[in-house]
Amino acid sequence: MAGLKFRDVGDVPLVEMKGITKRFSGVTANRDVSFSVEAGEVHALLGENGAGKSTLMNILYGLYRPDKGQIFVQGKAREFHSPKDAIAAGIGMVHQHFMLVQTHSVWENMILGMKETPFILPRKKIQDRIAEISEQYGMQIDPSAAVWQLSTGEQQRVALLRMLYRNAKVLILDEPTAVLTPQESEKLFGTIRRMTREGHGVVFISHKLKEVMSEAGRVTVLRGGLNAGTVAASKTREEALAEMMVGRKASLGLERKPMARGDSVLEAKEIHVLGDRGIKAVNGVSLCLKRYEIFGVAGVAGNGQRELCEALSGLRPLISGEISVNGARMDRESPRSFIDEGVHYIPSDRKGTGMASGMDIVNNSILKKYWSKPVAKGFFIDWGTSADYAEEIVESFGVSVSSLSTPVRNLSGGNLQKLLMGRELSGTPNAVIVMHPTWGLDVSATHYVRDQILARRESGSAILLISEDLDELMALSDRLAVMFKGEFMDVLDNPGTVPIKEIGIMMAGGHKRPRTAASKADREASR
Ligand SMILES: Nc1ncnc2c1ncn2[C@@H]1O[C@H](COP(=O)(O)OP(=O)(O)O)[C@@H](O)[C@H]1O
Ligand SMILES: [Mg+2]
Known about the structure:
By secondary structure, the chain is an alpha/beta fold. It has 18 helices and 22 strands. The chain has 3 domains: about 15-245, Rossmann fold, CATH 3.40.50; about 255-340 and about 430-525, Rossmann fold (3-Layer(aba) Sandwich); about 350-430, no CATH class. The protein is globular.
């Protein structure tokens, strides 16, 4: 056995945080928060963005010192000055962005930073130990593989293994499933169950209510840095948790009214597109976006989705294929012509492509309008009209700002996304291409953004929705394509009726589904 350093001390929690307060300049990230982890439990930590979850766990992992409060490990008060101290006390953390050395092998990553590392590495011994832990917790990994060759899910496994290798008894996982496919998440949950069976305590940070309900024993909700309550998952419901998170009744449901598919707005035929590194990113994709319809694209980020969006909005040239908007060929036209044709693109990279971060709200609101009336008057910009326009967006999309002259870089993620959505969705665009619209947004902002996308569908826009969030895609899409390595694995007509597992398999490049008569007919119709 791995020689877990923890004594059996009966009912004392593995760790206990009492009255933790942590301030950063201007914000109180944690306010008098108490939190504990028992042996054998998964304790979920839930909360909106900025609620203080990562801060609280970074404190437990020794990255930050609390301003107030105490940490007890098996009943004994401890002070951590660095993660080394925390690890020595049996506490390990896997961050959202795992801190691995990409050019090193898996086994070398295990021992990096360990002070007891001998000068000559006992490679065989380390690899045997990795094999043993992998076996024990059901994580397949090749110890000699280089980290950069591994998928995101595998890298996460390495980061977790690294903590187990160092005898962590408490494991903190900060939004581990955010980067995983459904299959990978299932595997991770399998590992987590084995860990708790072995007596580990697991802190599972997530904002996905479903996962929390199915995997956690207890759930603690943070709101605005405060502990809004700790409850047993078996004694609560998703709605109740959402309410604790946002502090009021939260509606989680979305209403997607049945709508008859309208005329075709944007069509792509067999398009091939290069990525930034000159490698083919989109490999013969055809699609047809129609009014009153949301066409979803599922897939793990990096499978050509961004390049597809950029091609469809005129930002990236085609190697071959055709794009037409409202029946007219557009594939040699400028991005501005696409905007003039009412094709709007909302990129996932809000600060880069989406907004000029140094400029204020007014300037950002008219960024795609300054050349046309009524914002432009001859060669000049009408600032009065521009400010009215910006104010309208801010009002109707509920962007919370103190002044329109605030540089957009000072907006929180949620507010920035609302401003961007407001700019791109105002009026009724012919087509909207929207990528990862709720990435990094919390429950209420997410709901708002999804609702706005549905509203645009109802008012007759054709919408292309790229997302990694299958729940989002299932809730919003009328049709759903699964993209893998630049291709559509399939286009599903009634995505709601397809088991999520099948979509997950396609996301990982697994078998294509047999063509159904209906989807074939649709393909014909879209020609
Ligand atoms: N290193 C830091 N410096 C300044 N402010 C920070 C820092 N880390 C977090 N914050 C702020 O503390 C609050 C809580 O953040 P965080 O713990 O990351 O929330 P969560 O993980 O729940 O999204 C936020 O307002 C955030 O901007
Ligand atoms: Mg966080």
